[in-house]
Design a protein that fits this description.
The chain is α/β, with parallel strands linked by helices. It contains 16 helices and 13 strands. Helix content is about 40%, strand content about 15%. The protein has a seven-stranded mixed beta sheet, with helices on both faces. Strands 9-10-13-12 form a four-stranded antiparallel beta sheet. A two-stranded parallel ribbon has the order 1-11. α5 runs parallel beside α6 and α5 packs across α11. Keywords: Aminotransferase, Pyridoxal phosphate, Transferase.
């Protein structure tokens, strides 16, 4: 019998819930993709480059114009003047960048600290690199990191910490004191950081995204991962990038060249144009999504759900304790099959399932979809 390298993995919860949503013709607030389209300029420029014949391999690290625009964006947002040639690599989505960064860092027997609830690609990538995930659980309602608990799981085998801010699925953002605590651990234990910042431009109520790129000392030990798919409503293009110090980026590129070699060439040119010609899209992203968060939140005020704070991302957590006694997986199945709304249970984001009665909904949807979903949920 064939022996699997990942024997405990099956179909992801996102695929399962989307399939159920399609089967029951439900409103799909489960999988995290926008219901609306990418910007017109981006689509127009993609089409132009395809028709012009810009359809062959790009340089493995990315076309120069896009690397330059990424560096300019980082300088504008985080006041860090990086070397685009040595420190930026364009990837086929943020998940590829996460995978490559983990393979570059993790060796047999290494331990990597992961905060649950966590994006589901972290642990498989760590295991494929020969490492072991050390899970630190965060819980409702605040999902605050207890840095003393993190210090207690440190060992001589600890190689890295993966942070995710703004955080999927909780919507929590790390603050300056979190970064200070992280820096202290990195220094004390000679650690590296993989900073998953794919929702970096989506923060609410005037809050500032604190990137690993804003701190010189922390960035010296970090891989910072970003997503064009999240920023430009184009998740199906699978375009992202990694930024790291030159020494780390050398190792990153060694692996990247044998994973995808290079990424979708016409899209790289179109994305460079978008960053250069319409910078207001990035700058307006927080307000755009805050409108949708507030629209859904206000529409749910008369429901029996308790809404947990969403400081960033395009996700909102709902505590359903007053609605049902079912566990969260059973409740999500009931919700899509009987009520016609698809959501995601929080327990699947944990290594050791949480007993919190919390589900995640995505508000990257058209306003009418959000209002129709809220109307149904208010009737429960």
């Amino acid at each position: 019998m064939f022996e699997s390298k990942l024997p405990n993995l099956g179909t992801s919860i996102f695929s399962q819930m989307t399939a159920l949503a399609n089967q029951h013709q439900a409103l799909n607030l489960s999988q995290g993709f926008p219901e609306f389209d990418a910007p017109d300029l981006l689509k127009k420029q993609l089409n132009n480059y395809v028709l012009e014949g810009v359809n062959q391999y790009a340089p493995s690290s990315g076309i120069v114009r896009l690397q330059q625009q990424i560096a300019a964006l980082i300088a504008r947002k985080y006041h860090n003047n990086i070397d685009y040639e040595q420190q930026v690599t364009v990837t086929s989505g943020a998940t590829e960048a996460l995978f490559v960064a983990i393979q570059a860092l993790v060796r047999d027997g290494d331990e990597v600290v992961v905060f649950d609830p966590a994006y589901d690609s972290y642990q498989p990538a760590i295991e494929l690199a020969g490492g072991r995930s050390v899970h630190v659980a965060l819980h409702a309602p605040d999902y605050q990191i207890d840095w003393h608990a993190v210090a207690e799981v440190m060992s001589e085998k600890t190689r890295a910490i993966i942070i995710n801010t703004p955080h999927n699925p909780s919507g929590k953002i790390l603050k300056a004191d979190d970064i200070a605590a992280l820096k202290a651990l990195v220094k004390a234990h000679n650690l590296y950081v993989i900073s998953d910042e794919v929702y970096e431009h989506i923060t609410f109520d005037g809050a500032t995204h604190v990137s690993a790129l804003t701190d010189t000392e922390l960035f010296e030990r970090s891989f910072v991962i970003s997503s064009f798919g999240k920023t430009f409503h184009s998740t199906g293009w699978k375009m992202g990038y990694c930024v790291a110090p030159a020494e780390l980026m050398i190792e990153f590129r060694k692996i990247h060249q044998y994973v995808t070699f290079s990424s979708f060439t016409p899209a790289q040119h179109a994305l460079a144009d978008m960053l250069e010609l319409e910078p207001e899209h990035v700058d307006g992203l927080a307000d755009f999504y805050q409108h949708k968060r507030d629209l859904l939140s206000n529409a749910l005020q008369d429901s029996r759900f308790t809404l947990l704070p969403s400081e960033g991302t395009y996700f909102l957590l709902l505590d359903y304790s007053d609605v049902s006694d079912l566990n969260d997986v059973e409740f999500c199945h009931w919700l899509v099959e009987q009520a016609g709304v698809a959501a995601v249970p929080l327990s699947v984001f944990y290594n050791s399932p949480s007993n919190d009665k919390v589900i995640r909904v995505c508000f990257a949807k058209n306003d009418d979809t959000l209002l129709r979903a809220a109307e149904i949920l208010c009737q429960l």
